[in-house]
Amino acid sequence: MTKHPLQKRQEKVLREAFGYDLEIDQKFVDMPYNGQLIRKFDKLAKGYDIVEVVLPENLIERILHESEFCRQGGMIIRARMKRTWYMHKGRKKVSWAFLYYEQIKDIRIDSVKLG
Fold first, then answer.
1. Would you write out the chain's pLDDT as a tens digit for each of its 115 residues?
2. Could you read off the pLDDT of 58-86 as tens digits, one per residue?
3. What value, to the nearest 5°, has the Cα angle with vertex 58 and ends 54 and 61?
4. How far apart are CA 15 and CA 18, in angstroms?
5. What whole-number distance in Å separates Cα of residue 43 and Cα of residue 92?
6. 86: exposed, middle or buried (Cβ count in 10 Å: 0-12, 13-18, 19+)
7. What does pTM read for this prediction?
8. Which of 59, 31, 54, 33 shows the shortest CA–CA distance to 43?
9. Cβ–Cβ under 8 Å, residues 77 and 104
10. Dihedral sign, CA of 108, 18, 69, 30?
11. Sheet holding 50-52, edge to edge
12. What angle do CA 33, 38, 43 make, to 5 degrees?
């Protein structure tokens, strides 16, 4: 399950990694940045083995540590992309090029308030 349309190379890498019969389902859903995150994620992830996330690391950390999906062995992956800025008709635009996928096994944010 993923939100963003795949570039051809992304689909190729996923199929090579997980099998050519892999079903890829796109869910165009924004995730809440509040107490509903885990409940909504688990509802969307139900029935899937692998979920690609495009979220800030603090939300990925919560999903990894709190979701039923992850407790039951679900895999979280994310695409690493190269961002390139360019000018088009006098406006700054961005393009994204796929680099690779990574499985996210753990994220730990250990911070101390300054000031």
1. 566 788 899 999 999 999 999 988 888 888 887 789 999 999 999 999 999 998 899 999 999 999 999 999 999 999 999 999 999 999 999 999 999 999 999 988 888 999 8
2. 999 999 999 999 999 999 999 999 999 99
3. 85
4. 5
5. 38
6. exposed
7. 0.83
8. 31
9. yes
10. positive
11. 50-52, 75-88, 91-103
12. 115
Q: Supply 21's token pair.
A: 């019969």
CB atoms inside a 10 Å sphere around CB 17: 12
**Nearest to residue 108, comparing CAs of 55, 62, 39?**
62
Closest CA to 76 of 95, 98, 102, 40: 102
- Name the amino acid, one letter, at 107: I
